[in-house]
Design goal:
The chain has 297 residues and is α/β, with parallel strands linked by helices. The protein is 45% helix and 24% strand. The protein is elongated.
Length: 297
């Protein structure tokens, strides 16, 4: 017997997950089906492919070989399908882009507008999420590129910084801090109520890791996105917030709010372009990478 494409699809996801349930879910299989299929694959290969520890597992050396080969085969099949679909759509191609929520509501609309105007035969499919979700999409080949602020190491991705973003305060017009000139330290804002973002948000994690004083922030409202934070600050005036300059500027064009730079050394973010292999991008991904790097050069 030989391994089928369905077998390889499961092994590809096993290589990216730490539980068979999660891998099966990504492959569109129920847990019992994924277990039976993995047993069948191991029978065909003649070796154990995973070491089980409760509900979690890790790949054996043979399992790593099968998972890596499955990923390469899946990537080639996906590339072939994209080429065929491009021919069927009269030469149109699609860029699959993943990004953080910060990028999505901040700079991405302007970047995409310029890119699509310069390349009318290219379409873009965008998905946003936290870093683990974004990294998984790029690692699996489901996204060509990702844009993310201050990404953590790991996940087998290559990254290069492409621009600097400043972290700042956003306050309602008329707030006491809005009348202070210049930049301030986060510590100077601690006496005031905050509209904070959820601790799972990457920006929130970054600030907590680099600014111990952020743990002293008094949060009256907690929201799950930076866009919701800006709107609540402007419309309810329940507090101030920490955000990034691109979002603060965008909010100031719509709402009666003011951006205040933070003077703290940690108040900067390097935004990165991420890919599985930056030296071997497809045609469309290469065009976008060149565009976004030249835009901020």
């Amino acid at each position: 017997m030989m391994l089928t494409l369905r077998d390889l699809e499961l092994m590809r996801h096993i290589g990216m997950e730490t539980s068979l349930v999660a891998a099966g879910r990504r492959a569109g299989m129920a847990a019992p089906s994924a277990t039976n299929r993995l047993n069948r694959i191991e029978e065909i290969v003649g070796e154990s492919l995973v070491i089980r520890s409760g509900r979690r597992f890790e790949l054996t050396p043979a399992g790593k070989i099968v998972a890596a080969s499955a990923t390469l085969i899946a990537d080639e099949l996906r590339r072939m399908n994209e080429l065929l679909q491009g021919r069927q759509r009269h030469g149109r191609q699609t860029l699959r882009l993943a990004c953080s929520d910060t990028v999505l509501i901040g700079e991405l609309p302007a970047v995409l507008g310029e890119f699509l105007e310069a390349h009318p035969a290219i379409d873009v499919a965008v998905v946003s999420g936290d870093f683990d979700a974004v990294a998984a999409l790029v690692a699996s080949g489901e996204a060509d590129l990702a844009l993310f602020p201050h990404p953590p190491a790991g996940h087998g991705l290559r990254s290069i910084p492409y621009r600097l973003e400043r972290i700042c305060l956003i306050v309602p017009d008329g707030h006491e801090l809005a009348r202070r000139p210049g930049a301030i330290a986060l510590a100077d804002a601690l006496p005031y109520d905050f509209v904070s973002t959820h601790h799972d948000l990457r920006l929130t994690k970054y600030i907590a890791d680099h600014a111990p004083e952020s743990l002293l922030v008094r949060s009256r409202v907690t929201v799950d996105t930076l866009a919701a934070q800006a709107e609540i600050i402007a419309r309810s005036r329940l507090g101030i917030g920490v955000t990034v300059e691109s979002i603060a500027r965008q909010a100031a064009r719509t709402y009666p709010v003011k951006m205040i730079p933070l003077a703290d050394k940690w108040a900067r973010l390097d935004f990165h372009l991420l890919a599985k292999n930056l030296d071997n991008l497809g045609e469309v991904a290469s065009l976008f990478a060149q565009h976004i790097k030249s835009r901020v050069a």
